[in-house]
Amino acid sequence: MKVINTLYVMNENAYLSLDGENVVVKVKGKPIGRCPIHTIDDIVAFGYVGASPALMGKCAEMNKSLVFLKPSGKFLAKVTGNTYGNILLRRNQYHICDDTQKSLHIAKNIISAKIVNSRAVVNRALRDHAMRIDEVKFRSVSEQLKKGTALAYTCSNADVLRGIEGECAKGYFSVFDDMILQQKEDFSYKSRSRHPPMDAVNSMLSFSYSLLTSMCVNALETVGLDPYAGFFHTERSGRCSLALDLVEEFRSAFADRFVLTLINHRMISPHDFIEKENGVILLKDDSKKNFLSAWQSRKKETLIHPFLNEKIKWGMLPYIQAMLLARYVRGIIDEYPPFIWK
Length: 342
Hints:
By secondary structure, this protein is an alpha/beta fold. About 45% of the residues lie in helices and about 15% in strands. A 4-stranded mixed sheet has the order 1-5-7-8. It has a 4-stranded mixed sheet with strand order 4-3-2-6. A two-stranded antiparallel ribbon has the order 9-10. The two termini are about 25 Å apart.
């Protein structure tokens, strides 16, 4: 298992085609780059022009995913090859989806882990920057998240769980702006604006979540699970509900901390953003390249996996969690162990 080697195509006017064994990127008919297809594991294109049937067929044949996102990072479509795994795994998955209590059991594990990881981010700010933040406010949120974890793990209703998750997220984001310690005059967080993002911080959060969702879709398909049949997020046409479930475990520890690092380490500046006519704030094309370069570097950093007790790269987390979830669905392990950041 390895961290996916991803080809990101940032130009929204780019057209992707196949020339022999090479992926060719063209803008207005002129090649601007090429890459041997055997050196990459998937392709993520931020644009509207598309790709040739030959390239899509080659990606399907070689089991390499081809993902199309809007320039903002919102998912559009995906081409993928043969489904891994077997029909019995997916039958078990659908059976769990249809069983309210079994779905809730997995959802409680996932959301409890999300809240624990959010609290870990808050507590790390308390530990590392106690002199620069409102310590009383942070400790209050930490206590709220601690209680929320227990409530989520023991609740007996899916709607109640969603309410607990929403209240904990509200508490967590109430101190998010306080964790922005540098460039305060240019970067601030007031509230979550998803589609569309109306400020630079929300733009980066949405972009990170989209990248993380794409990783989780790939991971679930790799182990044979259906990324569209979730246990916490409700099913909706075109919505990769199980991938969104899995993302919850990584939001704060992976994506949120990544965005905070970019700001606090001055790896991003207000000049990296453009405001559209409708007020939407997006990263400029060249800035997206720097953002993605930092994202790829982040994926290569290591940690000790709390369940496996092995050193892994952050980029492998979605694949390991998808593998553990598949083992639980198959009945190989008695409980799904969600990712808990320590």
